[in-house]
Amino acid sequence: MIDKVVANAEEAIRGIEDNMTLMLGGFGLCGIPENSIAALVKSGVKGLTCISNNAGVDDFGLGLLLHKRQINKMISSYVGENSEFERQMLSGELEVDLIPQGSLAERCRAGGAGIPAFFTPAGYGTEVAEGKEVREFDGKPHILESALTADFAIVKAWKGDRAGNLIFKGTARNFNPPMAMAGKITIAEVEELVEPGELDPNFIHTPGIFVQRIFQGEKYEKRIEQRTIRT
């Protein structure tokens, strides 16, 4: 067994340099790699292209990197909770590629599976389809979408073992697993790090073969964007 454990987030992000492409898992503020993002902010790395379903909020998640002007381009689906993102996009400071959510997930999954491109009906007839090949299947037009990969994929799991096998919890299981497959180097931060053999193989979502570095995170805030309660 290859022991993939590193000491902390600072050691995990070693090798991430200016102008690289990163994938960052999570959905809203659920299942985001909080420790790794904080380490990236401290590192001062800049010119990043970030592939993520969303861009965090103004003072948390990827919003922290945006405030420091460390991101040049965002490839995302939902970005409505971040006013700094909006400001940078409208001013032309930030390049943005908005993608339908299902297409974004499939483009990441395809990248990890070695599938270079696929046809989907999502986005046909909109700006999303501009400049893309269109073919008709079963009488319905589809557009050609290319796979997405990254220099580094950074994910956050509930549990993981020293070999890199991961289990995700709840909503964190949407973008994290496909992104873990699509990075040249995949970093996993986990809430609980266990010894090999302690995870039931039937419940592992991402096999360790896809993970190169793993560490146990700490002090997770797990913020909620919009807390709704009954009056």
TrEMBL record:
Signal peptide: none annotated. Keywords: Transferase. It holds the Pfam family CoA_trans. Gene3D superfamilies: Glutaconate Coenzyme A-transferase. The keyword Lipid biosynthesis does not apply. The keyword Kinase does not apply. One of its GO terms (molecular function) is CoA-transferase activity. Belongs to the 3-oxoacid CoA-transferase subunit A family. This is 3-oxoacid CoA-transferase subunit A.
